[in-house]
Structures are given as structure tokens and as C-alpha cells.
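Workshop exercise sheet. Pairs work together: one partner reads the sequence aloud, the other fills in the structure field after running the prediction. Swap roles for the next sheet.
Pair: D.N. / O.F.
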Amino acid sequence: MTSPILDHTGRPMQKSGITQRGFNGGNAWQASSYSHPDMADWIPRSVSGQSALSQERDTIVDRVQDIARNDGWASAALSRQLDEVIGSGWDIAVDLREKALNLTTDEADELSDQIEEAWTDIVYDPGFWIDAKRQGPMSSVLGRGYRHRIADGEALAEICWDEGRGGPLATFVKLIDPARLSNPFDEADTLTQRDGVEIDRYGAAEGYWIRTQHPDDDYVWGSGSPEWVRVARETEWGRPVMVHAFEADRDGQFRGVPPLAPILRKLRQMTQYDEAELKAAMVNSVLAAFITSPGDHGEIAEALTDKEAAERHRQFTADRFGAYTAAPPKIPAGMAHFLYPGDQVTLTQPGHPNSGFEAFFRASLRNMASSIGLTYEQLTMDWSQVNYSSARAAILVIWRGLTARKDMFAAQFMNQVYRAVLEEMFDRRIIKLPPKATSFEAAPAAWSRVDWIGPARGWVDPEKEAKAAGLRMDLGISSLERECAEQGLDWKQVARKRARERRFLVSLGINPDASKQNTAQPQQPAGETNDERDARENREAA
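Structure field:
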């Protein structure tokens, strides 16, 4: 046993606490403080990417769906993003790599054209065979899938195969409501099964448990006890079967979250505030007039004891009643009321609509627009407070986010459908390969390489931006393909149509270049800012 160290009095020395220089008992980071008045009651729960969703996602999605059905701004937010990302559908642009597929340049171009034409014929077949429910072409399937993506946080679809169905191909797409993806009989999550998604030891999805129908249909249609079916992610040779498109915010997340989730509470308050102001405005819009009857309490008291006074009062009241019955007083868009003799009405003037309502609501809509990746102007269609420069800058920033979201959805959803359709087209010899070309089975990724042409970005000032596009092409920093794609056009189709129109005009003896004139445009004065230029051009136009 070790002997203690004694002090000068012969007693064991006590352990002394070490005081750090400058330490006063507080946190080094106020972000972690529980004593700061602004942070004391902020005690968040530590959750993983998926545990935060397993018990709460259904409630979030149900609330988003409800407010999208019943609130105009929420519905507009989803519709605007659908228009910006999907539009009327995506066109295909195939660009095969010659070396990877052992093709010549001419063979690659020829096959690209064949694939594009065959794909277009199949997905836009008027029988709508590409859609399991046969409700529309592939653009309809794509639009409904993306609406699920932004309203439910994810899009779910099964790529089916049925040779006896009757369509041009056995491949078709069946959209699935994400509410049907869940653990069988709503069992708790396990290490290999998370909220309906079956995962392998690396965390990759390998199977999905799908309820045979929506949970609410059990009550509506009386289907009886629910059932679940397991659908594999892909076949043994890699053909995609289940498509699950969502963007994970954190590692370990296997289900999606709607973009409106972070502002759902504020959006609900906005809806209630809007309704309250509308009701107040309706109340204030009512015009009411009150008619005070002549007489006082003394005359009424005399009528109670004097028969002659009572008769006079009765006759007077009867005459007045008869007169108003024959010709009732009316006020346009209002009402007239009678009061008891001697009574008066005092009208109040509540301050509604609130003078700050518009500014507050505009700020709230800006918050809402930024959370879903749009500008305030795109959400509200109000362009009255922007000029060319600010509108152009805003659209450029927003377009990057929309393009990234489009590319991710294309990789997770459309590319999987395209790969399955392309595989069957090769298998059925709809697309015939040159003798030395690499087979689809040997290089499915190389053959499935494709670009999707989405909706046009649009032009704030068509003249200026068209000239800028031409200048970029003249400088060699852009191409016709890229410039056309930004405007939702296929450069091959544009070139073919231009050549066709030119041949037609020449056949009629019309010079197609006669309308081209070199109109010199006034140069922008040196030192003039873009805003000053906008103001000058507005004055010149006026």
C-alpha cells in the first residue's frame, strides 16, 4: 500500500482542482450551451438518417398531401416544379461511344438515330402500352412519377414483363404509390429490413416489400386482410425490376422526404393566416344601415295606462309596418335593420385586412419558394419587381438546382426504364447491330448511355440571349446540341427541319436568305451598368 504524501501539518495532502485560464464555467461553443437563454430549451433528439423517418415519415407525407389538395400555394409549388423539371415530357438524345462499342463513327450515328426513332415509337404509341394502367404515354408516367417524388419524397415503379399483354413490347412500367412500401404487417425494422426496403450487408437495396394495395383501400373497398409481395431490385443478369428514386440527405437513409417537410409547419400557419384575413375582409365588406324608430320610453309607458295613447301608438306602428312592407328600404349590396325605439348602434373598425399582410405573406412565399428550389417569381408568377438583370441571375442560379434534380431523377428512374426497353429491342432485333459491334450483354452500361432533353430554360430577353448563344458557338465554347437542349429542342430535328424548309423554299423559287438583314444594334455606352441599360431601353421603347 502506498503511503500518502503529508503536508507541513502532517496531514495527507488533498487533490487540488486545476482551473483553466479564462474558464468561467460556460461552453466554448454557444451552439452546445444549455445555459444560454436562447438555447436552454433546445434539446434535439440524436437520430440516424432512417430512424428519423421510420416512425414519422407517414405522418409527414399525409400532411403534405393534405395541404397540397387544399391549399393553392402548396399545390402551385408542386405544379411549378413539375413544369420546370418535367414539362410536357423528355425527349431522348442518344450519343453512342464508338470505341467502347467497337463501332465506326457512321455506324454509331446510324444506330443512335435508329434507337431514338424506335424509342419514340414505343413510348408514344397511341395505345399507351408503356403504361401498366394505359392512361397515357411515357411522358404521363414520368410526370406522375416525379409528382410522387416531390410530394412523397420518392417515386416507386416496377418494370414489368408480360409477353401476352398485347403491346409492341413485353416491357412496361407500373407506378406504385410509395405508401404501399412497408414492412410486412407493419413489423418493426431490423438490420436487414428498413421500412419495407430489404438491404444486403453493404446497405444496398436488394428487395422491396409492396402492399398489394394502398392502406386506405382496405377500409374503402373492404378488401380484407392486407398482403405483401416481395419484388427484387433486379434480375440475376442485371435487368432492373424495381425503380426507387429519392435523394438521401444522410447516409443510412432508405426512404425519401418531401421537399416541403422543413417548412410544413410554417406553410400551415400561412394557410390559417390567409383564411383569417380573408374572413375579416369579407366581414368588413358588408354595408349595414340601421333605422332608429321614433318614440321614447315615456310614450310607451303612457300607452300602457291610457287607452287612447295605446290606440294611437298601435295605429302608428301598424301604419309604419304597412308602409315598410309595401316598400321595404333597400341598399345596393347591403342590408337595412330596424332597432328598438331609443336604441343606437356603434360601429367598430377593426384593422383588417392587416396593412402588413402583403409584405409578410410575400416574405413567407419567398421562404417557401427557396425550400423547393424555385424563385419567388416562378412560384407566384409575379415578375413586377424584377428587371432583366436580376431575373436572369435568379434563373441561372435556380436552373442549376433544377438541372441537378432532373439529372438525379433521370439516373434513378428514366435510365432504368430505358435500359430495360433497350434490352428488349436488341433481343427482338428491332435494333440490328453491325457484325463487329459489342453485344448489349457484354456492355449494357455503354449501350444505355443517353441524355434526356427536358423543358426549355426560356429566355428573359430573346434577342439578347439568342445573340449570346450565337456568339458562344462562334467562339467554340458551345455547340448546337447544347444550345438546343437548353431550349428543350433536339438539335438533329432542328437541323433536319431547317434543311427541309430550305429545300422547300428553293423549290418555289424563294431565296431563303432574303429576309436576313444586318441591322446594327446600338452599343451600350461605356460605364453603363445593366440596370442603367434596362432603364435606358425602357425609355427608348416608350
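Discussion prompt: The mean pLDDT is 82. What would you look at next?
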